[in-house]
Amino acid sequence: MTSQGQPTVRKAVIPAAGLGTRFLPSTKAIPKEMLPVVDKPAIQYVVEEAERAGLHDILMVTGRNKAALEDHFDRHWELEQALERKGDQLRLQRVRKSANLGNVHFIRQGEPLGLGHAVLCARTHVGDSPFAVLLGDDLIDERDCLLERMIRAQQTYGGSVVALMEVPEDQIHLYGCAAVSPVPGAGDTADGDVVRVDTLVEKPAVGDAPSNLAIIGRYVLAPQIFDVLDHTAPGRGGEIQLTDALREMAQDPHRDGGGVTGVVFHGRRYDTGDRLDYLKAMVRLAVRHRDFGAEFRGWLMDWVDSDEGRGKRPHAEDDEGEHLGH
């Protein structure tokens, strides 16, 4: 599987056409990718990750009602001028940062036909070089260089690379799952292992999963994936599944662009695709915030020890406020 002279990975694709139904009614008028995680939208964390990995050419695959994404990564001259007049350089810098994150392009998916179809929409933009795919629901901590490691793995072994993470067995049915074997001579001095992916199963039933290694939302794909997606029939949910196309590539490693490598990740991942996990991600990132993290952590510890934090029923006069969280 070792590959010499692999083209450099320079482009990233971010599928962002989902409806965000799990966050309704918040996402009725606001794209789920624009929901704030502490003080910036989730999608900005993903674009910043691509930038850190040296991927400055970024294509977002969007759908209807996603204009806010384009607005966020564009200049807002009136706001900038207002902040300049106030002398508010700190907020001006923050506003300008999102517009200065690489070269961000946008394309419409048209029909919600699945992740595989969203990737296929990027074909013309990507061309004939390997490229990264980053899903907006998974945020990877900036201290954990997962994408950089995946790019190195692709340069070394060729083919495609998926990010894998161990999950509890009773949760594997929520993910694509990988059956893996060792890669001879492979090693990694970071916080995970490099493995060969033998096959992939999309959301297997509990008890049928070949392992507890789940595919998380980072991929580095060989351009030959487009030809496979072209003839991939709709799978689970009636959608074109990227997992199905990658399974074909994994099971035929000698074909052009074939073979799939997995990078097993043991770092910090923040899942913003589920309401409870979104709240957990918010807290985990807030306690690290450079401006108020220490103060927030202190308040949180005090609150957890309070009657309210321990879940005791509030006094009668607080009952009205209790209902606000329902």
- Helix fraction by DSSP (H/I, runs of at least 4): 25-40%
Query: What is the H-and-E element order?
Result: EEEHEHHHEHHEEHEEEEHHEEHHH
First and last CA, distance:
54 Å
Please tell me the total number of domains.
2
Main β-sheet description: 9 strands, mixed
Q: Enumerate the spans where pLDDT stays under 50 for 5 or more consecutive residues.
A: 188-192
Q: CATH homologous superfamily of the largest domain, by name?
A: Spore Coat Polysaccharide Biosynthesis Protein SpsA, Chain A
CATH architecture descriptor text of the largest domain: Alpha-Beta Complex
User: How does the overall form come out from the CA principal axes?
Assistant: globular
Identify the strand order in the major beta sheet.
5-4-1-6-11-8-12-10-9
Mean pLDDT: 87
How large, in whole angstroms, is the Cα Rg? 21 Å
Kindly state the number of beta strands: 13
What top-tier CATH class of the largest domain fits best? Alpha Beta
State which percent range the strand residues make up. 15-25%
Protein structure class:
alpha/beta
Provide the CATH topology of the largest domain.
Answer: Spore Coat Polysaccharide Biosynthesis Protein SpsA, Chain A
- Tally of individual helices: 12
Keywords: Nucleotidyltransferase, Transferase
Protein name: UTP--glucose-1-phosphate uridylyltransferase
Family: Belongs to the UDPGP type 2 family.
GO molecular function, one term: UTP:glucose-1-phosphate uridylyltransferase activity
